[in-house]
Amino acid sequence: MPFGCVTLGDKKDYNQPSEVTDRYDLGQVIKTEEFCEIFRAKEKSTGKLYTCKKFLKRDGRKVRKAAKNEIIILKMVKHPNILQLVDVYVTRKEYFLFLELATGREVFDWILDQGYYSERDTSNVVRQVLEAVAYLHSLKIVHRNLKLENLVYYNRLKNSKIVISDFHLAKLENGLIKEPCGTPEYLAPEVVGRQRYGRPVDCWAIGVIMYILLSGNPPFYEEMDEDDYENHDKNLFRKILAGDYEFDPPYWDDISQAAKDLVARLMEVDQDQRITAEEAISHEWISGNAASDKNIKDGVCAQIEKNFARAKWKKAVRVTTMMKRLRAPEHTDAAKANPPAAATADGAAPTETTSSSHAKPEADGKVPAATEAATATTATAPLAAAASPEGTASTAPIATAETPATTAAPAAAPAAAPATCNGEQNTAPSATPESWNEETG
């Protein structure tokens, strides 16, 4: 199917809104994400269903950049384990992206529904993710947002493939990348440490995914008091920097040594020594017969329900904005002119805004669609406090995301924009609470 609009940014080549509605029937909004609304669309001529993502240009420069970035990246890729871009329309007011429709479930839900679940099942999931990521890396594309929420089954058939979605944070690796972004629990040490990074961050994230799928626990977990996200993230980042995770009994007692070896190699703290996606595909646990066929469902599901389903860790809505500390050095002078009224325990300025809310599960255990998207948070000031290996806090500003008014969640569960980074640095305070330029959706 040809793309509706080929030339991005060409003011003489805008599509008319009627071109979209003449070709597609757009249903009601089924999900609200950080920068866009998601519809189910039906092509009138064939009756075929697609996913439509609509970005409103009026919602800000970063929304426009996120849309353009996702279009550019998705036009470059074609792989069976990546949701394909089908059509694009750019009007004067909107970007419309039409993608393949994945009708299957998230991996979490699939595991909970299985009667039998073993290492081999996990190996099959991880292999597909590795193959897609190896393909992306061959094109020098870094996804930067790999997490369980972005892995879904393409359909509900027994042998359905896994597909990766959400590419608005993906970036071409033209030299090492420096702006930090991503979901805190999946961040690689080099991102937390404010170092330059590249494709190895995706392999670290796959290691985190594999750890969770085999044990039902996140590798880095920090108990926290209600709303104490600053200290939570700070302690979390310290653990990530040190690679402070363990194969705790009894959760790992029945897991093979080969599985533990691959997790350790994917979650190698030194990015230069970390296994690549291509190398991981050749590991005996992926390509050989080292994955155990023992049923581990009961233990894994119990921990998933404890750590994820109950607390909605995978879909938590939490925003941590600490922009006064992160905007240094741009706002150093302003900070001196207007010193904060109080300091935190570690001597740092208090956060500008800290809010959190956990979406209340509905009767079927699902999170309301309006809040489901906002699962990423910002790795903010705790990065500076916990990250620097030399013991000095980095003062480099972090890119921030504007929060479009159209993506606000219901008052009962205020959803903040997921953290994201599109290679920009925000030099002026936003009128609304900010989080990173990407992640947890």
From TrEMBL:
It is found in: Cytoplasmic vesicle membrane. InterPro entries: Kinase-like_dom_sf (IPR011009), Prot_kinase_dom (IPR000719). Residues 24-286 form the Protein kinase domain. Residues 335-354, 368-420 have a biased composition (Low complexity). Pfam families: Pkinase. GO terms for cellular component: cytoplasm; cytoplasmic vesicle membrane; glutamatergic synapse; synapse. Gene3D superfamilies: Phosphorylase Kinase, domain 1 (3.30.200.20), Transferase(Phosphotransferase) domain 1 (1.10.510.10). CDD domains: STKc_CaMK_like. Its cofactor is Ca(2+). Interacts with calmodulin, in the presence of calcium. This is CaM kinase-like vesicle-associated protein.
